[in-house]
Each structure stands twice: as C-alpha cells, then as structure tokens.
Amino acid sequence: MSEQAADVTGVDGKRDDDYEHHGGFPKYEAVTPGPDWARFVEGMRTLQDLAVSVDAPDDVVAQAADQVEKLAAVLTPYVVPEGRSPAGRTIELPGRGSLLMPPWHIEKFGPDGVRSAGEFRRYHLGGNGAAHGGTLPLLFDDLMGMIVHAYGRPISRTAYLHVNYRAITPLNTPLTVEGSVDRVEGRKTFITAQLKKGDTLLADCEALMLELLPGQP
Ligand SMILES: CCCCCCCC(=O)SCCNC(=O)CCNC(=O)[C@H](O)C(C)(C)COP(=O)(O)OP(=O)(O)OC[C@H]1O[C@@H](n2cnc3c(N)ncnc32)[C@H](O)[C@@H]1OP(=O)(O)O
Fold this sequence. Notes:
Elements: E1 2-4, E2 30-32, H1 36-51, H2 58-75, E3 105-110, E4 113-118, E5 125-127, E6 130-131, H3 135-150, E7 156-165, E8 175-185, E9 188-197, E10 200-211
Antiparallel strand pairs: 1-2, 3-4, 4-8, 5-6, 7-10, 8-9, 9-10
Octanoyl-coenzyme A is lined by residues 28, 141, 145, 155, 157-160, 188, 208, 210, 212-213, 216.
C-alpha cells in the first residue's frame, strides 16, 4: 500500500499546519490500496443492500450467517487504530472506500467548493422508495468536513447542521451534492450546500463548523 500526503494547501497558499496541532486527533493521509480493496468494498456494499432486502429460507440464512462469521474471523486479526485503514482514505473510490459513506464520487474539490455525485442504494431506503431522512445529514456532514478542509480552514467540528427536505430523494438515481463556504467569522465557518436531481432541488443545508481549540477532541 503506498501512502501520499493529502493536499492540505489553504486558500492563501499556506499549508494548513494546524492539522498537526490538535493533540490526539489522528492525521488522515490519502492511500492507494491494492486492487482487491475496491472489489472488497463493493462486495460489502452489495451485502449491505442484500442484508436489508432479502427474505430467504432459514437454511439459506443459516448458510449466510456461517459465511459471515467465517469472514469476520479472517479479518479480525487485522484491525488497526483510527486513521490507519484504507476505509475513508481511498480518495478515488466511492465514499472514499468507507462503508459508512454513501458510495459517491468527488467531482470537484477546492476553496470555491466541493461537489460529489452518486446514488443512494437499497441499503439507504427509508420508506416508499425514498432515501432514509437520516442519510441526507450524513451526506451533508461529510461534505461540510471536506469543504472546510478544501477551504484551508483548521480542523473543525460541526456545531449545527440544518437540513431542509424539499422533495423526495429517490434511490438508484444519479444525484449531486455541492456546497461552499459562505463566510468565516473567527473560529466559525458558515457553509451552505444543496442536494439535486438534475436541476431539481431535493434538500438544502446550512452548517456551522467550529475550529477546534488546542486540546479539544
Ligand atoms: C478529519 C476531519 C474531521 C472533520 C469532522 C467532520 C464533521 C463532524 O461530523 S464532527 C462530529 C459532529 N460534531 C460534534 O460532535 C461536535 C460536538 N460539539 C463540540 O465538540 C463543541 O460543542 C464544539 C467544539 C463544536 C464547540 O465547543 P466550544 O469550543 O466550547 O465552543 P463555544 O465556546 O461553546 O462556542 C464558540 C462560539 O460558537 C457558537 N456556537 C457553538 N455551538 C453553536 C451552535 N450549535 N449553534 C450556534 N452557535 C454555536 C457559540 O455561541 C460561540 O459563539 P461566540 O464566540 O460568538 O460567543
């Protein structure tokens, strides 16, 4: 596995060295894992979709449970501390290779904003064919983290995230989410973002990201 430093150049061209100065906050670096990582993650996503959508006979469920337990036993010896797994650090993969994140691709990443595109899948179903309402704040919150970083701000945490649901968010449909920094006031970064299907607004979001003080977790 090769490691490379993520681009942490700020808007003013200075490096965001504050990243180093928050005791205990792990440093995340982009990685390019071996070719099977993408296959593994996509296979796990398919399993997640299936786990929430099948109604199989008992013997089939028993067989699946046996195999899942065997797979867990294979992987358990390789658990590493936060920030060391390729999950969440593989920039070129959907959701950066993390199962927690919806499988979306970053299309634009810079001080003027971040955009990503993708689809919600069966795993993200809320009801009546729509994405679960809780998946949208997840998508927005992750975007906010990327926007604050792309803007060159120091490590910040979400103080609030206000989501307006404007229209039903469909599954298995290409969507985009895009946002940018509106203004900075001291430690506060105010950001807005929109989730769209084509030109149709599905949801919009306003967030306050607060720069962490030294020692804040
Ligand atoms: C690797 C990169 C990781 C990126 C993270 C991605 C984003 C995330 O999902 S983070 C996880 C979700 N967020 C959290 O868990 C945060 C939990 N909360 C906290 O840790 C703290 O409340 C924290 C750090 C946000 C603020 O605490 P603290 O530093 O004590 O701030 P505090 O002094 O109360 O407030 C500072 C200012 O912000 C304002 N403020 C704080 N919270 C809010 C709020 N919810 N709404 C409005 N204003 C607020 C205060 O009024 C104050 O304003 P002013 O200076 O004008 O008086």
